[in-house]
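User: Could you walk me through two proteins back to back? I'd like the raw sequence and the structure tokens for each, with a short line separating them so I can tell where one ends and the next begins.

Assistant: Of course. Protein one, sequence then structure:
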Amino acid sequence: MKNAKISRRSFLLGLAACSAAGVLTACKGTDAPSGSTASSVVEQPASSAASSAVQQPEPFLTVEEFPPLDGSTACIPLMAQMLADTTGMELEEARSSITVSTTAYAWENFGLYDTTTRMLVVYEAPDYVKEELQKANVQLEQKPIGVDALVFIVNEDNPVQALTRQQLRDIYAGKITNWKDVGGKDQAIVAFQRGEDSGSQTLFKKLLIQGGELMTPPSELAPAAMGELVDSIADYNNSANAIGFSVYYYIDQMYSKPGLRLLAVDDVAPSNDTLADGSYPLCNDFYAVIHPDAAADSPERRLYDWLDTDAGQDCIKKSGYVAVGPQTTVTIVD
């Protein structure tokens, strides 16, 4: 694996841009439901027949050696699989052992404070966190390890099956306010968002809004937790006029709910296949992050490097994610 050193400014610009190359070269993940209809609450991803055929990985860390992790909510199943595969711990026990502080706080704590965390598995940091890290001259080493996507959720009784990116921008700018203007019923559109410190809000602003107009939602339309947003869209006023967003993996494998459906965007439905081949238009990488001074024989460095091996790639894919393949390490330097 090569090490590429770039300036902090270049890194931050790169971190703020969707890695198209990573999407196009992503390894095809384990097939998952297309996401057209969410049918039940799934606490953990189910193993597919393909993943069950994968040879059992050889543990190389003890449970005591395994580095403390932090990161994004949607990465919890992957962290648990990493713990199980590298230590031999039973997966159910590993799942109960993983907790996270969520995206923004994970980046801040890891970069700015003296925590026990030794590695992040995490979605992109919000802009304000990137600025904090830059001002503090923080050095971090990261690489993309998988692809996820921003997806839009509606009630299954809503007849609208797809929206274009421009229609979505106009909805969230307050320019389109009624579903009849996009092929739906004569109902006012209720557009949910997330808080500024959430990973999905970061992707929403980066991949869709891109510096354009964005209306400020009332507090009741910006729930703090992803699960609350999903519940709110399903239950809002007992009607089908709400819309919101999440990341694909979370809604498809971790917290789906009866009565909801994912929209196609620009006529492409989100799925593992469309994320892997880059045809779904709102894809983005997620990352493994360590401190650049981590020793070659440290548990975090060994785990970080292991993710590029066949066993590490299998770990990502059997957890239900789309892997991007072995990557060049990127280091922030002065």
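----
Protein two, same layout:
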Amino acid sequence: MSGALIDFRIELNLWIALSILIYALSVNLAWRWRRPRTGRLASWIVKAEGRPLAGWLLQLLRFAYYVGLPFCLLLNGDAVEQALRRLLGFDIPLSFLMRGVLLPRAMGLSGLTTPEWLTGVGIGTALGLGAFFLIASGWWYYTRSVRKLSWGQTDSPAPGASVGEPIVMASPPPATVWWVILWEAIYAEMHWAFYRAGPIILLDDYYAGVFLGFLLLNLEWWTDPAWRHGWDPKGQRPDVVLRWGLAFVMAIIFLFTRNLWLAIPLHWAIEMGCRHLLKAPG
């Protein structure tokens, strides 16, 4: 990073800006393609969506976006090149791809001692339980007493999953199995930690960085027509509001624990509990 043309902190935040642009492009394309239309393009899209290869390609793109991008920014290409040179005997240029500008400590992947880990588990569990009861009670009251709105009942046209659109937001939440929720929790927490890490590293301030990262996430979501439509009173989607609430409470939990490994299971447990409670009859 010493020979870089720009400071690594600036480069990292430029990568975050690029990530937001990729998200905005993908969700807007998904929104347009899934609206009723006729013609050759529409028939081609329908045929492409029906092929198994399209589904696998979409999942590969989502993995590259949510996990691959932060992972490449975590790795130092020079160090990887040297290791591969010793192993293989020839060079593989990776510096252009593996930038090494993202610090594991800012992501919550390292830097904690055993006592800090144990303290974080206690604090995270307590905050997670509080967040679960807060979200669940608020949404139970809203869906059962105010709107009588079930998970699958919405006027919002489902846009389906794009590179930036979670699978759980493209299918009825009650039918979503536990491992899909876990998979999406990993994607979400990696993505949210990535957006927090940029401001944290730039400002060297966890408090400001966590909340600026949350604002960046809201900016990204605002570019999604399906997300904006989900807040409309006529087509409000409980999964949209739940996801926003989860992002907020997980930001608070990360602020106190600074542990991504802990955030993932807590996210999964809170979301599973809320979805199970809110789909229950009565």
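The chain has one domain: 8-279.

Let me know if you want the two compared in more detail.
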